[in-house]
Amino acid sequence: MASPHGQPGRPANQGTARRFDHLAAIENLRPGHAALNVSVFRCAPRSSFPLPLALLEKHPGSTQAFVPMNARRYLVVVALGGDRPDLTTLAAFIAHGAQGITYRPGVWHHPMIALDAEADFVCLVWEDGSPGDCAVVEYAEGERVAIAIEP
User: Which domain holds residue 46?
Assistant: First the structure.
């Protein structure tokens, strides 16, 4: 997760701000083919738990970073794996609105899950518009892992 908490930073803007650099690496493994896409995801809140995971996705050629604009809390779900997620490595945690998240290339993850209220996230990812931008594995109803959280 990207957060300036605990970092010293450095003065900026004639002393009216502190700048926290290099909090996350944004990798492009397809130079010359992909362009940086800066977008906003507006996510409806999920309030029904446990949440069965219908799919996981990964971006093989790019880091994908999310910066919350107005989120209170959101759920992050990740897993390692190659062609398919290794569900024995599945991990979930709650992030708060002052934390960004960066998925390294090839890390399986669930799409953003806003908690409490609708939330906007700035997203940065290198894409070229091809099917190689995003790999998705869908799970049939009987295969789904359910994530439960405390309210």
Answer: 24-147
Whether 146 contacts 110, CB under 8 Å: no
Which runs of E-coded beta strand occur in 80-140? 91-96, 101-103, 108-109, 113-115, 119-127, 135-138
**Is 93 part of a structural domain of the chain?**
yes
pLDDT in tens, 44-98: 999 899 999 999 999 999 999 999 999 999 999 999 999 999 999 999 999 999 9
Q: E strands of 31-118, at which residues?
A: 35-43, 51-52, 55-58, 64-68, 73-79, 91-96, 101-103, 108-109, 113-115
Residue 44: CATH number of its domain: 2.60.120.480
Sign of the C-alpha dihedral computed for residues 140, 87, 27 and 112 taken in this order: positive
